[in-house]
Amino acid sequence: MSTNEQPYRGDVSEAIDVFRRRARTAGIPCGMVLAGQDETGAVRAYAAAHPPITVPGGAVSVPVLFARVPGSATAPSLTAALLGALATPTARRLTSAGELQRLIATLHDRAVELIILDKAENLKSGIGGPRSDVCVAWLKLLVKATRIPFVLAGTVAGLEGLLHHDTHLSRLFQVHARL
User: Which tens digits make up the pLDDT trace of 46-65?
Assistant: First the structure.
């Protein structure tokens, strides 16, 4: 994938924890790529080990948000997937930009510390086509606007194609682990 790829011999939880600690101290928008044959169970287990917490006053904090990228992803379907993972229904009368702003505000309100996007290779359906360009632009915008660390989990081939397609995206997702 890249020169900073690290074959990871430990478990997924340890790799994500190391990335999370480093991302917290870096204070800049960043991401990690976890590529392998089938790590879905491991990343889902990591998210399950960090469940939502009700803080004093009744607010809900979601330390780790896990969402699956829908097949043939579009910007509205990605926004809906993350809002659904936050148990927040999509609003029917908002534009795509309005929904994205609502998502960003909700991520901050829920104190999300890490976002894991599973099946991230679905972002590249039809690489080079307008839909995939919009999905990649949506992801870059969300990473920069929220400054929340992201983990893209998926297949090696799918994620390689996605990162090679967009150099700016590959600069945002510089930490790579191959499982």
Answer: 999 999 999 888 888 999 99
